[in-house]
Each structure stands twice: as C-alpha cells, then as structure tokens.
Amino acid sequence: GVGQERARNELCNMGKQAQVSLELPVNTTTGVVEPGMLIGLDGWRGLVTGVSIDARLTDTEISASQSVDVRRHYL
C-alpha cells in the first residue's frame, strides 16, 4: 500500500548501502520473494531488486531455490 511505498522511498535515500546476493529456498516459510519487497534478515533490512528461481526435478522430488538481489541498508 501507500505506507509500504513511502517506506521503500525513505530506505532508498538513507545512508550507507550495499548490493547483496542471497540464495534462499522456495518453501512454505520463505515463499517466493518478489522485486520491490522490503525484507529483513539477521538485523538488517533491504529492498529486493531482482529474483531468479531455479527448480530441479529428480526421480523422487522437486526442489526450488531463488537467487535474490537486495539493496542492503545499514541502519
């Protein structure tokens, strides 16, 4: 909503930043991360700038992971 967009704009204008790449599973806990989302991990926050999903099928299971690019903001 409007509040999330305002937070995104404020974060983009604040202090020290870095681009971080993360490998996350796609499961019921993490779900699929989408560009534009604000996420928090291990005491820091960031704006998702890109996502790539990889799925693998074996004889017994399917697994999926996502590569997530995040603009990290140091608070």
- The helical percent reads 10-25%
Secondary-structure element order, N to C: HEEEE
Task: Give the overall form.
Answer: elongated
Please provide the count of β strands. 4
Q: What class would the helix/strand composition place it in?
A: mainly beta
| Helix run count | 1
Please give the alpha-carbon distance between the first and last residues: 23 Å
Q: SSE layout and pairings?
A:
Elements: H1 2-12, E1 17-25, E2 38-41, E3 44-57, E4 62-73
Antiparallel strand pairs: 1-4, 2-3, 3-4
Defining traits:
75 residues; 4 strands
Explain what you see:
There is one protein chain. With 75 residues, the protein is mainly beta. The protein has one helix and four strands, in the order αββββ. The protein has a four-stranded antiparallel sheet. The longest helix is centred in the first third of the chain and has 11 residues, at 2-12. It is elongated, with a radius of gyration of 14 Å. The two termini are 23 Å apart. The mean pLDDT is 87.
